[in-house]
Automatic annotation (TrEMBL):
InterPro entries: HTH_HxlR, WH-like_DNA-bd_sf, WH_DNA-bd_sf. Keywords: DNA-binding, Transcription, Transcription regulation. One of its GO terms (molecular function) is DNA binding. It comes from the Bacteria. It comes from Streptococcus intermedius. This is HTH-type transcriptional regulator YybR.
Amino acid sequence: MVNNICPVKLTLSLISNKWKVLIIHELLSGKKRYGQLERSLNPITKKVLSENLHELEESSLIGRKVYCGKPIKVEYYLTDLGLSLKPILYALRDWGDTYKKVNNK
């Protein structure tokens, strides 16, 4: 079914909301624990963060490693596929910088 979808539509379906893009952006700098993501993405709710992490994991853009112990430690990271979005996110950042300069915002 994926083969019949327009590539742009497919990409947007995988990173279709601001939280997914911001989660990926946060993980570009390396592995993060849930609490770190929650703090850096404030005001995201726990429910929205959990849902988006799950969806990103389901689409193989991020992975997670669970460390046994008390409390259980979970780290999230970008997969190679997720890391391949780096130039796209940097292009969005650069475009935003240009937009701010042009519009004095």
